[in-house]
Design brief:
Layout (H helix, E strand, L loop, with lengths): L1 H21 L2 E6 L6 H9 L12 E2 L8 E5 L2 E2 H13 L5 E5 L1 H5 L10 E3 L9 E3 L6 H20 L2
Parallel strand pairs: 1-2, 1-3, 3-5, 5-7
Antiparallel strand pairs: 4-6
Helix pairs in contact: 2-5
């Protein structure tokens, strides 16, 4: 009886790994800012022109359902706590993609500016960086694919 439970558990684990690989859910967490250029490019990347849904990539309505967090914009002091809360709500394994120069380095909004709290990787760990101001939708999709590969490596050990 116990061997059948172990077999069913292994089957369920492999089924969950397969489903995670074939159906990645994204949560778009804008860090705040003035430009919103990266947010527009993220929206363009998930439209029918690029059709990422054919790869099983969907937007999650809640961070509790997401596998990958997309962060765009400079990290302001007001958005720091919200981003930490979002990061803690995403279940393991998870990946974080920092999109755009503001999220990666602060760009023109340097850290000596009073509302800026720093870069995203100073607040939470970042797995994939997508540079650009703003990056093209193709670059964002490539960053998501790199995040999926990192998720696969993390789940391969479990």
């Amino acid at each position: 009886m116990s061997s059948s439970k172990a077999t069913s558990k292994c089957f369920l684990c492999s089924l969950a790994k397969w489903a995670r690989k074939k159906s990645v859910w994204l949560y778009h967490a804008p860090a705040g800012g003035l430009c919103n250029g990266c947010d527009i490019e993220i929206a363009a990347a998930i439209t029918p022109r690029y059709d990422v849904e054919r790869f099983g990539i969907l937007l999650a309505p809640s961070p509790r359902h997401a596998d990958v967090i997309l962060i765009a914009g400079q990290m302001t002091k007001h958005s720091r706590e919200r981003l930490l809360r979002v990061y803690q709500q995403v279940p393991e394994p998870k990946a974080v993609v920092a999109i755009g120069s503001c999220a990666i380095s602060g760009n023109v909004f340097t850290t000596d500016n009073y509302p800026v709290a720093g870069t995203v990787d100073q607040i939470i760990p970042v797995d994939v960086y997508v540079p650009g101001c703003p990056p093209k939708p193709e670059a964002i999709i490539l960053g998501i694919i790199k995040a999926i590969e990192k998720l696969e490596k993390r789940t391969a050990g479990t």
